[in-house]
Write a structure and sequence with these properties.
By secondary structure, the chain is of the alpha+beta class. Helices cover 46% and strands 22% of the residues. Strands 1, 2, 5, 8 and 9 form a five-stranded mixed beta sheet that branches.
């Protein structure tokens, strides 16, 4: 059976300084979707998320296909713009915001429908991972996404609960519900939500990755390994799944198992997963392999030159760099 998916055909940026605005920078852009290459199921809306360089979710918006997103009050720094469809990440763009005065920054994103193989491909949307809900529930889902975007998580939870009370099989809604609870540090409720999603769709990668990350926070490292191992098996080219699995193994003091996954995360997303260098450096430092730790810190600073720990890391590198 063939599946359809979204794959990034082209990502480009038009970054320029326009008229200064009050309240911080504005980051905006058009999301264009080419639907000429395939028919069948197509998304009516996309979720645009803005993450800080450290991986914290800052904003979330729902836009129509071929619509425009806009994030206001954005401070100087590096960010990841992520495009999701039904909770599946289909595009990630790194953008740098750096201006001495308030300005507009434009980042356009272009996506295209195309057919994928039976097995699917990493980073593309599988029809098996989408969920068909009623018009009423779709409206509630989009309202919940907008509430989360505005950081009104109580409202998002209330709206998602209305969907789930009526349709407990809506696994993307369970993940959204769990993530809102996670952000509010209601970890038990979040884990239960992710488990509900997996009960309806056992091979849902986003639920597995979210569950694994949550279990790391809750220091249930064996449970994290269980969830993340399945996620990596399903999506071996997921940088996030590899990164968190490596992290979980590291917390279990299984460095020999952690290293391959952390290195794979760096291979798949060298900049976005730069924190893996810090984990590897900590491991090597603990093993008295200080020259290798220095090399990891050096690679980290090349990707994160504005790190607040820059001075300390440079001192370590100078003391332990292999000559």
């Amino acid at each position: 059976m063939k599946r359809l998916g979204l794959s990034v055909l082209l990502i480009f940026a038009l970054v320029g300084s326009l008229k200064a605005q009050a309240g911080g920078h504005t980051l905006f852009g058009d999301v264009r979707v080419d639907e000429t290459q395939a028919g069948g199921l197509k998304p009516l809306s996309l979720h645009i998320l803005l993450y800080s360089e450290s991986g914290n979710l800052l904003f979330r918006q729902t836009v129509a296909s071929n619509g425009r997103y806009r994030f206001v009050d954005v401070h100087n720094g590096r960010y990841d713009i992520v495009v999701e469809v039904e909770g599946i990440e289909v595009a990630r763009v790194r953008v740098s915001v750096n201006s001495p005065f308030k300005t507009d920054i434009r980042q356009d994103i272009e996506l295209g429908w195309r057919q994928v193989s039976e097995r699917g491909q990493p980073g593309v949307l599988s029809v098996g991972d989408t969920y068909s809900r009623s018009v009423e529930h779709e409206a509630l889902f989009n309202k919940a996404a907008k509430a989360s975007e505005k950081k009104h998580y109580d409202e998002a939870i209330r709206l998602l609960k209305k969907i789930l009370d009526s349709d407990p099989g809506d696994f993307p809604a369970w993940v959204e519900f769990g993530t809102a609870c996670f952000i509010q540090k209601n970890f038990e409720e979040a884990e239960n939500a992710y488990l509900h999603a997996l009960k309806s769709h056992p091979n849902y990668p986003l639920a597995l990755i979210s569950l694994g990350r949550l279990r790391i926070v809750r220091k249930n490292f064996d449970g994290a390994v269980e969830a993340l191992s399945q996620a990596v098996k399903l999506q071996p080219m997921s940088a996030q799944a590899n990164y968190f699995l490596g992290n979980a193994y590291l917390q279990l003091k299984l460095g020999s198992k952690a290293v391959p996954y952390l290195n794979e995360a760096l291979r798949l997303d060298p900049v976005g997963m730069a924190d893996a260098h810090l984990l590897l450096a900590a491991l090597y430092n603990a093993k008295e392999m200080k020259d290798k730790a220095a090399a990891e810190y050096e690679m980290y600073l090349k990707k994160r030159p504005d790190s607040p720990d820059k001075k300390m890391l440079k001192s370590y590198i100078a003391a332990h760099r292999k000559t």
